[in-house]
Amino acid sequence: MSLESKVDSMIKKERKKQGIKQVVYIPDTHHPYHDKRAIKALENFVKEQEPDVVIFGGDNVDFYSISSFDKDPERIYGLQEELISAISFMSKIKKLAGKDTDLHFLEGNHEFRMAKYLMRHPELASLDALRVPELLRLGQMGISYTPYDKGLMIDGFLFKHGTRANMYAAKSEVELEGVSGMSGHVHRIMRHSKTDRHGSHTWHTTGHLSDPAQIEYMKQQTPNWQQGFGVVEFNKRNGTHEVYQPVIKDGKFMFQGKIYKPTRNNK
Asked: What is the third-level CATH fold of 20-254?
């Protein structure tokens, strides 16, 4: 066993020793329009941390060619490229995270474009091969699937793709759900807390991992977006949790005092 492998194993063993379960939430990669440097830094993080749970938080595929918006003729026939890019990424994350990691996929509004496409073309709707789980080979990779209108609850904390896309998204989500949770969708990093007679809850939005320069509707403007992802650590012994929202800048971010960045050979 290499020294690097020993260090990786020690991190996870120490979490288990302390009764901590780590969940990594990966938002809005929009393959194949993802930011390669940010993705590589994230891959290095997953390799070292070996999280207990990985959640692909939706909009991991752009589904550009079947959207209802006007489309660039040079991009319209790239659906297979999008699928291959996303499958390759998820497969790599699965390998880096380790065999004991639980993997989940939350359908986002971009993946939901396929359902809407089938509604417009009902003659194709009976084909299971055109459903998102089959298109992305989720079953083959051992990744569980959560539809767009559902959420994933872990230890009383709700993970979802998100439905609010304004500057008050975190506030809107916590008021809507009434529990603490995490979402993507809005491409911004925010948090909002609320206390009422039922207790205190905080909602976190995690930014995105796409490349705005490749997003067609963002050309000629600077979007109010931030790159990032989410980490939630649950202490099973006392029922508490801690939320981290690492901000990625120029392909680098910090977690618990360590800098993570892309490397040349992310294999």
From this structure: Purple Acid Phosphatase; chain A, domain 2 (3.60.21)
